[in-house]
Design a protein that fits this description.
Strand content: under 5%
Shape: elongated
Order of helices and strands: HHHHH
Helix content: over 70%
Radius of gyration: 16 Å
Structural class: mainly alpha
Length: 138
């Protein structure tokens, strides 16, 4: 069932990755900049300087998530846009959003519910977008 790596459209993966990374850039650098700082208790403070981990880490995690979705889409035989959207919602809400809240609910996040509420929509939209691209290019 999971011997599907040879069936994955790697061009579709690359396009979905670029789309997700572009969406992340817009989401985190434009849409939620101020609420994100508030959620982290850093409002009014300068943004921390980027380093290799903070730059490459989210991209690598996005790629792992995307590859996992590609494998599951192939293994489950998802071929329609409607089922791609449903799959993206299940993964985006059921795994990615839930984990976003779970990670934030600890003493290091001063506003965990705000953190989850402003981050979860990105993961849902990114998951649906990726699933639709992967299925459309199957």
């Amino acid at each position: 069932m999971f011997n599907v790596l040879g069936d994955i459209n790697w061009l579709a993966c690359a396009i979905a990755a670029v789309a997700s990374i572009a969406l992340a850039g817009v989401w985190f650098a434009v849409v939620i900049v101020k609420p994100y700082a508030v959620a982290l208790g850093r409002e009014g403070a300068p943004a921390p300087e980027a380093n290799a981990v903070s730059t490459a880490g989210p991209i690598l995690c996005q790629l792992v998530t995307l590859l996992t979705s590609a494998v599951l889409i192939e293994a489950l035989g998802i071929t329609t846009t409607g089922n791609a959207v449903a799959f993206g919602l299940v993964v985006g809400i059921g795994y990615l959003s839930a984990m976003t809240f779970q990670i934030a609910i600890n003493p290091n996040f001063p506003r965990p519910l705000l953190y989850g509420a402003i981050n979860a929509p990105f993961f849902v939209v990114s998951s649906v977008l990726s699933a639709v691209i992967l299925v459309a290019m199957r």
